[in-house]
Design a protein that fits this description.
CATH class: Mainly Alpha
CATH topology: Four Helix Bundle (Hemerythrin (Met), subunit A)
Number of helices: 4
Bound molecules: flavin-adenine dinucleotide
CATH architecture: Up-down Bundle
Shape: globular
Distance between the termini: 45 Å
Structural class: mainly alpha
Helix content: 55-70%
Order of helices and strands: HHHH
């Protein structure tokens, strides 16, 4: 399907930035509920992402490699690996997943309760 490649790339960059930042802030020790939220969020995201062709590929990808939700480290590494799978398919360079959390600062406070202020 034809589309505007510049717009699709822009949406992709903004979305990856958001997703990686979300993982960098995911709890180190998530509760059962937080784990379910992340799992469900990613599965729903992969059906609703506005580039239909991208969504389709990504849904298949994360059905094969289910979201890792046991810790901040697992979640960040999982998303980095999924982004690399997409990079591979689009023939883009593979990203180094070491210290990924520090590469995505959010400009917010260090504990969830501090985010309220
Ligand atoms: P992006 O891939 O957007 O990455 C932005 C920046 O993130 C990079 O410059 C780099 O600093 C960093 N980065 C790169 N790799 C990683 C990684 N593994 N982990 C952490 N950070 C990293 N486009 C299509 O044309 N077809 C598709 O099927 C398609 N599927 C997509 C599926 C999803 C879920 C998303 C979010 C986007 C998809 N896109 C797709 C868009 C595509 O992935 C890119 O976002 C877009 O092409 C712009 O690429 P970019 O080179 O600017 O870097």
């Amino acid at each position: 399907a034809m589309g505007n490649e510049t717009e699709r790339a822009e949406l992709g960059r903004a979305t990856w930035k958001f997703l990686h930042t979300m993982m960098a802030r995911y709890p180190e020790k998530p509760s059962k509920e937080e784990r379910k939220s992340l799992h469900d969020f990613m599965m729903l995201f992969s059906t609703l992402y506005p580039c239909g062709e991208c969504a389709n590929h990504f849904n298949k990808l994360i059905t094969t490699y289910p979201p890792q939700t046991s810790s901040r480290f697992s979640a960040s590494q999982w998303l980095c690996a999924m982004h690399n799978k997409v990079n591979e398919r689009l023939e883009k360079p593979i990203f180094d997943c070491n210290n990924i959390e520090s590469k995505y600062p959010c400009g917010c406070a260090t504990t969830p309760s501090e985010n309220d202020s």
